[in-house]
Amino acid sequence: MALSLTRRTFLLGTGCILIAPVTAHAAKEADVPYVPTPIEVVEGMLDMAGLRAGERLIDLGSGDGRIPRAAARRSATALGVEIDAGLVARARSLTRLEGLEERARFVRDDLFTVSLRDADVVTLYLLPDVNERLKPKLLSEMKPGARVISHAFDMGDWPPDERREIADKHVFRWTVPAVAGGEWRLIRADGSAAALVIEQRYSDVSGTLDGRDIHDPELVGAEFHFVADGAAYRGKVGDRTITGGDWSAERID
């Protein structure tokens, strides 16, 4: 990946999602000079992502394709998105030379229109304002639990889950959270019901159960945990349900 320039807003309150329009901002080849990511940083980014064999990685602003090719060597499937036709051609040529065509491919496309819905990992080396414009797309399109890895620049008010210094470069990791904010009807194993209200901002959550504060709430991807009235609740957040081992919850419109 190279530094290149190639929108749903995720501020969640009590069941509130503020949606801003996705606007195409096609990058121009001359906007930012080509600055390759050092190989040590490439490998460190994939390590931070915890990239596994069979997962799908999308590299936005893929330059000469070094991140997708490195992902392919780890038996992942990778897509590089790059606006510069010359760099796309170079990435394809290097991929053929390394015999990685089955796992890594490259397209000349706009970062703001390419679909991210199937990505397990998205990697970035963009500019701060591009990260900021791209953030709503990452949050709305990527599935809960997917990871975002950025070289050099953060995501503004979306706090990273992890940051490292690799070869004197800053690298950040985020886990895409499920949409948990809102009002839910919780059903316990004994059939009793309770009103669960969750306040959410990115992965930070708080809330109440029948009007009393929940404790130690944690949301990692779709995995949600909290303690209330001395009992521990652990479940997986879906679009309209939370499924736990001995409890469940349904979203209230």
UniProtKB/TrEMBL annotation:
Residues 58-142 form the Methyltransferase domain. The keyword S-adenosyl-L-methionine applies. It comes from the Bacteria. It holds the Pfam family Methyltransf_25. Keywords: Methyltransferase, S-adenosyl-L-methionine, Signal, Transferase. Residues 1-26 form the signal peptide. GO terms for biological process: methylation. One of its GO terms (molecular function) is protein-lysine N-methyltransferase activity. SUPFAM superfamilies: S-adenosyl-L-methionine-dependent methyltransferases. This is Methyltransferase domain-containing protein.
